[in-house]
Amino acid sequence: MVNSTVEKLSPTRVKLHITVSPEELKPSITHAYEHIAQDVQIPGFRKGKVPAPIIDQRIGRGAVIEHAVNEGLDGFYRQAVEDQELRVIGRPSAEIVELPELKDYSGDLVVDVEVDVRPEFDLPAYDSITVTVDAVEADEAAVDAELDRLRARFGTLVTVDRPAAKGDFVELDLVATIDGTEIDRAEGVSYEVGSGELLEGIDEAIDSLTADEQTTFRSKLVGGDHAGEEAEVSVTITAVKERELPDADDDFAQMASEFDTLEELRASLAERVSEQSVFTQGAAARDKFVEALIEAVEIPVPPQLIEDEVHTHLEGENRLEDDVHRAEVTEASEKQFRTQMILDKIAEDANVQVSQDELTQYLIQSAAQYGMAPQDFVNALQQGNQLPAMVGEVARNKALAIALGKVTVVDTNGKPVDLTGFVAVEGEEPVDAEEEVVEEAQEIADAAADADAVVEAEEAAAEEAPKKAPAKKRAPAKKKAADSE
Q1: CB atoms < 10 A from the CB of 372, how many?
Q2: Tell me, what's the pLDDT at 346?
Q3: CA nearest 267: which of 147, 137, 417?
Q4: Which domains, ranges and CATH numbers included, belong to the chain?
Q5: What is the pLDDT of residues 209-253, one digit of tens each?
Q6: Kind of pairing, strands 130-133 and 408-411?
Q7: CA 257 to chain centre
Q8: What are the Cα distances from residue 272, in Å, to 202, 449, 476?
Q9: What pTM did the predictor assign?
Q10: What is the DSSP pairing of strand 181-192 with strand 408-411?
Q11: What angle do CA 397, 400, 404 make, to 5 degrees?
């Protein structure tokens, strides 16, 4: 049989002492002989039919033991984790302490395994927490701003003979050099001044320049082989354009929406602004609630787990020697770890489970974020055995939405904020999706395929009426209740 004991090395790390009896190891030894017999070629014996004594003579029992241990170790480790009721969160590190006797395979296999585990901590009572969010009002100014954004969608760009200003669109030619050597060039780039979406420092460089004027500035590159390196960038403005907005009148309302009058359009926009305000406050309350929990609870962080994540991140960016960035990534990783631990604890305390419908909806939304068809996204998750991890994400999001409903939320004016519709409630009848997810994955894929058909139909309709705005009643977009990655 497999016996195990656990030694606590730190609040986040344990050592499992695993002892495997000869009887428990015997099936792995039998399989080892079978696998080795398939791999070796010995004259006089068919492949796969080499007797064990011949393998002992030609290959050696040491190779058999090594094969058996490698094959069975994962199962022995998982059984020990289950027996000790551990919540592992990292990759295990194993050390063989003792092997069975080679002459007759007698004696125990003894293995020590170190692994990071979820730290133990308690959460404060949610009803004792008050979070404050910015006050928002669906006033006329907010409706005007929403109307202007809609008008901008139907605006036209007109070339002007004046210096560029914030909100203008400019056409640029860019040349980047490092130590006098050109490493990148782009021509005819369209850029909105003040958007900050191109290169750091470009807005300050081109402010007040007119067409055919040129300047240089220094900035860190954000893409290509030299991403993260500082370069001298030469920028030339070839054209300055401003956006002319259509008049806000009944004709515009008819062109841009399903409404006949500007008054009706403004009423619809006011409703939208109000819905967006609730979402904005809800998202802010969610983030501040998590911050409050992080401050209120001391959660130990496993150093090796964080170090491995940071190394992988920096290696992917080719910035292993950037100590400043390493510190930034380390801080962010530690915060992400604490956040995930808190959400897992909330889900556990509330016995949160995930229904198949909730998982399906989350997968469809995630597929859209990755720009993939839902069915392709689900198939990719199945191949990578990542569906259970997605179930965990849904559970965390749902748990946070439930907990948020028990928190006092006020705005900066001291007014209570009603987040009904943003928070979740307990008392549903979910199924345990984590156990059923693999079996029902095809059902999810089929639902995703149906969603694809709906999207295609909507896109076809949109092509028929490309300038129609949303209907009067617009439901607020649903968003994940937590970001814990």
Answers
A1: 15
A2: 93
A3: 147
A4: 2-116 (3.30.70.1050), 156-244 (3.10.50.40), 261-464 (1.10.3120.10)
A5: 999 999 999 998 887 888 888 999 999 999 999 989 999 999 999
A6: parallel
A7: 35
A8: 34, 30, 8
A9: 0.63
A10: unpaired
A11: 140
